[in-house]
Amino acid sequence: MLKLAVLLSGSGRTLDNFHDHITAGTLPADIQVVIANVADALGLDKARNYGYPAYHANDSESTNEILADYQVDIICLAGYLKLYNPPQSLHRRVVNIHPALIPSFCGDGFYGNHVHRAVKRRGCTVSGCTVHFADDQYDQGPIIVQKCVPLDFTDTVEDIAAKVFSAECQAFPEALSLVDEYGVDFFWQRVGR
Hints:
- This protein is an alpha/beta fold.
- The chain has two domains: 1-91, 3-Layer(aba) Sandwich (Rossmann fold); 97-132 and 144-193, Formyl transferase, N-terminal domain (Rossmann fold).
- It has helices at residues 13-24, 42-50, 60-67, 112-122, 157-182, 184-189; strands spanning 2-8, 29-36, 54-56, 74-77, 94-98, 126-133, 143-150.
- The protein has a seven-stranded mixed β-sheet with strand order 3-2-1-4-5-6-7, with helices on both faces.
- Helix 2 links the parallel strand 2 and strand 3.
């Protein structure tokens, strides 16, 4: 069972998803702590209501000071909108979800509706999400799971966002289950050969 730290910046929809899957027994994990880089993030209120320790931290250094008090196997970036630098003990143990099929529509500045607008402008007929390990660059670490969603010609940016988020709700728990099954090293060793 994975011991998770969840880092977020906003509403905590991914935290809700984790909590629901853990409660249902479909995600072999336990949330140890939730940290937001935005002081009034709704996700912090949700974390407290679920009974998880919840903190505000402005930067990686402050976040890592909080994490030092918890036993954590994996750090989940759940709508965390900053580049995060983990402590050495958790290097290669940070998992992120991106609202597109990497390597398309990713990197610095590509998050949330910025991604979905770019997908719509390009006229894509599919989009999706990617769960991957994070490193010191945006959206560059090994991919764990990708989910594809079909798009209609008439889909709005909001329609695309809703379809992709629905896929994210399946993909992130699935990816964490795979990390629990195969281990972290498996994913780092299978790329770049």
